[in-house]
Amino acid sequence: MIDYQQAINYIFQTIKPLAAVRVPLAEGLDRVLAEDVFSLLELPPADNSAMDGYAFAHAGLGDGFLTTIGFLPAGDHFSAFVNSGEAIRIMTGAPLPKGVDTVVPIEDTEQISDNRVRLHKRLERGTNVRYQGEELKAGEKILCRGQQLDPAAIGMLASAGITDVCVFPAPRVAILSTGDELVELGETPDNGKIINSNAHLLAACLRQDGFFPIQLGIAKDQPGKLEACLRKGLNADMLITTGGVSVGDRDLVQPTLIEIGLKKIFWQVATKPGKPTLFGTIAGQPVFGLPGNPAASAATYQLYARPALRMLAGHSQPFAPTLKVKLAVPLKAGGKRLHFLWGNLFIVDGELQFDPSQRQGSGQNRSAVGAQALFPLPIDSPALEAGDSIDIIMLNLPLGQNPSNN
Ligand code: AMP
Ligand code: MG
């Protein structure tokens, strides 16, 4: 059986980004750039005022009085030369007229008469001037391939005249739940049936991460029916199944996937939860068979499927960050498998602490509710004390609440 690090390595070696697409800029939010981007424009297009104020030639200021000879709003221009000792009343963003080099804000002046102002304080030459090309030069590389587009990047690209961007698309992920015991939410789970909660859990994970879930419903534990359902997932960018991937008599996912062309890359990892995890590709499309137990599905999504999806989406840093934090409570010694514990992160005296969830059972959705991190308790780890320094895997931000404040 392989270990967690080997599983991660296999995923890292296998997954390549999806084919890039060109989309209108507005659709680029959260996507990763597939090419470097160069500015089409120079910004600012001309030297201009950073304030509402008076523009004048610094060298001619003399006694601190200026004669105003005109008004210039943004979007307009003033073609005449402004002589020494003269000023233009200028609004933010208006291009500086010829002859001036400095702007005094209105609030630092006093109107003496209709066309005379006095400055309250001395300014350096060039104060409140934004220079041509100071933000962007035409042709300058402004963003690099691999950069994720945040709102500020979208704004900058718009200002540079970029109407569309070449990005890696958000993966579309087919979700298939397997198990004769499952019914859909809204149906009555009688005779020992349970609700297909994994489909909801995984779709929520995918949406939170910016990917598109495609629900394939429930497949019965019967080879023919299972095969037909699995085939429906082969048009997506990734197929994720839950359940039926362990060593039980009705665990048919692996043999059926192999029948429809699965190239198996790994099955079974020495972790708890998540031991039966299956990973492979069908005609290049990544396929994950995740365990059916809800908290095991949730953990293996975070540990394997999410980084794989981030790689498909072009992220160069696909893995969740790890962080050194303090353990809030003592923990029992580790066993023969790497044991991922769900927990809450909170801040005590400016330091992050990890508080393991009360429930860690892989069969319970409740184990993972509210958790911000997974702590991989190492194989054969000695028992740990409260206050020990541990490395945790961050799942998301922001952090949770300090339980002692509840
Ligand atoms: P399996 O891996 O198929 O043996 O499933 C293990 C356990 O996970 C089952 O006994 C169910 O209790 C649970 N389970 C499997 N699939 C789901 C699902 N889609 N939603 C909720 N629980 C599930
Ligand atoms: Mg099953």
Report on the structure:
- The two termini are 43 Å apart.
- Strand 21 and strand 22 form a beta hairpin.
- Helix 3 runs parallel beside helix 6 and helix 4 packs across helix 5.
- This protein is an alpha/beta fold and 406 residues long.
- Helix content is 17%, strand content 31%.
- The model has no long low-confidence stretch (mean pLDDT 96).
- It has 4 domains: 156 residues, MoaB/Mog-like domain (Molybdenum Cofactor Biosythetic Enzyme, Chain A), CATH 3.40.980; 57 residues, Molybdopterin biosynthesis moea protein, domain 2 (Alpha-Beta Complex), CATH 3.90.105; 83 residues, Molybdopterin biosynthesis moeA protein, domain 3, CATH 2.170.190.11; 73 residues, MoeA, C-terminal, domain IV (Beta-clip, Beta Barrel).
- The protein is built from 6 helices and 27 strands.
- The strands form 7 sheets. It has a 6-stranded mixed β-sheet with strand order 8-5-7-6-10-9, with no helix packed on it. The protein has a 6-stranded mixed β-sheet with strand order 17-14-18-22-21-19, sandwiched between helices.
- The longest helix has 19 residues.
- It binds adenosine monophosphate and magnesium ion (MG).
